[in-house]
Amino acid sequence: MKPIALIGFMGSGKTTVGQMLAQEVSKPCVDLDEAIETREGRPITDIFATEGEDYFRQLEYNVLQEFAREDVIVATGGGIVKEEANRKVLRHDFLTVWLHISYETVAKRLEGDTTRPLWQQPEHVKRALYDSRLSLYESCAETIVEVDHKSLPTLIKEVKRYITVI
Ligand SMILES: Nc1ncnc2c1ncn2[C@@H]1O[C@H](COP(=O)(O)OP(=O)(O)OP(=O)(O)O)[C@@H](O)[C@H]1O
Ligand SMILES: O=C(O)C1=C[C@@H](O)[C@@H](O)[C@H](O)C1
Ligand SMILES: [Mg+2]
Predict the structure, then answer these.
(1) Is the CB of 14 under 6 A from ligand 1?
(2) Were 12 and a residue from 63, 99, 160, 164 both cysteine, which residue would form a disulfide, CB within 3.0 to 4.6 Å?
(3) What keywords are annotated for this sequence in UniProt (predicted)?
């Protein structure tokens, strides 16, 4: 079976759902943001501030590729779909589940967040980023799970149902 990749906008719950799902199905969960931070020995905010987003995207591509043939659940970063190279790997090597969230729910969840560099921008820029990402997630998604107003156990059940029928 291909590895599972959870994709979706910042705050959609990829890390949270990925960890709980992995426990339920007894597979390791790999969080790409965490893997990058561990390797670089510094937080993503520092990587963006010092080397910039392009450098971060290269690191992200490297770790995505590394887990493309492992039996794992991968929680991707929200911007993984920005690069065509990543989209190709996702489509070809992973079973992808898009955690689809509304902008309003993201805004509630990430109020006061300081750890996501692209969330530290004016409201209209964040909305434009959200809008521009939708078609990119869609272009990689094998299935969509709506996350608004759903508890974690409900979401886990939905994702699990999908991956066990594959
Ligand atoms: N179903 C849910 N209901 C309520 N809160 C949730 C739910 N899922 C996640 N959260 C909360 O939303 C916040 C963001 O979740 P998480 O870090 O898992 O998102 P993410 O998709 O991994 O974001 P990123 O793309 O930035 O890595 C966390 O505070 C988490 O506890
Ligand atoms: O949406 C994005 O571009 C990002 C989301 C986070 O998961 C991190 O990967 C980083 O903050 C960039
Ligand atoms: Mg995450």
Answers:
(1) yes
(2) 99
(3) Amino-acid biosynthesis, Aromatic amino acid biosynthesis, ATP-binding, Cytoplasm, Kinase, Magnesium, Metal-binding, Nucleotide-binding, Transferase
User: What is the Cα–Cα distance from 51 to 30, expressed in whole angstroms?
Assistant: 24
Q: Which residue's alpha carbon is nearest to atom 8 within ligand 2?
A: 77
* Gap from CA of 77 to ligand 2 centroid (Å): 5
Atom of ligand 2 nearest to the CA of 115: 11
How long is the chain? 166
Q: Taking the model in full, what pTM does it have?
A: 0.98
What is the pLDDT at residue 165? Answer: 67
For a pocket test of ligand 2, which of 87, 118, 129 has the largest count of ligand atoms closer than 8 A to its C-beta?
A: 118
ipTM for the whole predicted complex goes beyond 0.95: yes
Taking each continuous run of H as one helix and of E as one strand, the counts in the chain are 8, 5
d(CA 143, CA 134): 14
**Can you list the domains of the chain with their CATH numbers?**
4-153 (3.40.50.300)
